[in-house]
Amino acid sequence: MYETAFIRLHQAVTGIEILLYGACMAAFLRPFMDESPGGRRSIRQRCLLVSFLYAAVFIPGMLLPGSGGLYMILLMALLTGCGRFLGVERRLLFLLSTLFFCMRNLSLMVIRSVDYFTGRLLLENADTPQKVYERASGNVILTDALMFLLFALMLHGLVRQLRKQPLILHTRELCYMLLPPVTGIVFVNLTIRLLVIVNGDSVFQLYESVSAAVYVIPLLAALFYAGTLAAAAVCQRVVALQEERSGYFAKQQQLAAMQDRLAQAEQLCDDVRRMKHEMRGHLSNIRGLAGSGLYEELERYIAKMDAGFRALSPHVSTGNAVTDIIISDTQRAAARLAIDFRADFVYPSAGGYDAYDMGIILNNLLQNALEACEKEECGQRHISVSGRKKRRFFLIEVRNSFEGEIRFDRRSGLPISTKESVPCPGSLPLHGMGLSNVRREAEKYHGNVDITTAGKEFLVTVLLQEKSAD
Q1: Of 59-73, 256-270, 388-402, which has the strongest mean pLDDT?
Q2: What is the pTM of this model?
């Protein structure tokens, strides 16, 4: 083997390496892609797109002169631009791409030290040019295989850490997470330029001039890798604490809302009892007006009584004061927004269901439906709610008109919220808590929540199982 064959071998190994790295990048991003109606086929197509973009950017780099950093930045820009199609939030996609290239650079840095030892060992007794090129070729194949294996192990460890807890990245969290990998990439690129420096006839080789660098540089690469994992763990812990705080705040809001509903129901019962108590006086007044022949005054008096009765009676009668108020309030809000509202809800007569839990479920579902319809500027906007009991089960369905596309989170199985977030100080936004609260309440009754879209309609079905009497 001579120089020409060695160059061709090196180019072939580099080409295979690019294809393998493209496949690794697709596999690295796959766990973070949101599910879509296309299912596995859609995921496969998105992974193929990632592999294609990687190859399309880096293969020309084998033939055209240029900096590897420029190709890396170009690929990251292309992937970030395709974030919506890939089903990965753009901030997260930018972070994942940076982490990928950091792992690639760190594994390269470690293998450079290995290459220094294996190269000296294999070329030690090479006394002819043919042997030199043959052993150099073997060294290229060996070190590239070791580098790819190390890179795959590092990437696997990183994925395991990132999947322990979902990352919700705002600007601050993104900056924290980017600091270790960006520093690692800069460190590796600077170190590679210092390994061999040619100045005229003099050649400076870092490993030969500073023997400790052979051990120190891989150690620094390992520290950068550990720092990246630690930054991910710390960021995930912070996010988890913020989610707990936001969840507590959301529960407090739900508690306050339900207490208000219960207070309204109690006030309604008090008003009904007061009206019943006053009926004897009203009847006496009616007899007096009728006996005096004051029929016009009698009609006005009865009209006032009728208005008072209508004010006390909710627009919808479900068989429970709390659900009456919730559905009636939604009906009034829908009327103000010119949304067609229909209700066919009958509260289960059996005692296995708590009105407080039922109120949380209905309140969340109907509020979500109102907000979804309110965003629609035209079309037949409508909301319908139904509740029916069959044996030991109670089924709640809320339908609303819907325009757009729903993306589901792979971990929770719930739709990704598109609401405007209104964060409380020092915590995460509270949007997206509604359906989580519904699922939590359903689980109390060994039930489940099913979310589907059909045509231009969004449907949430909640199945509850009656609790056994203690």
Answers
A1: 388-402
A2: 0.62
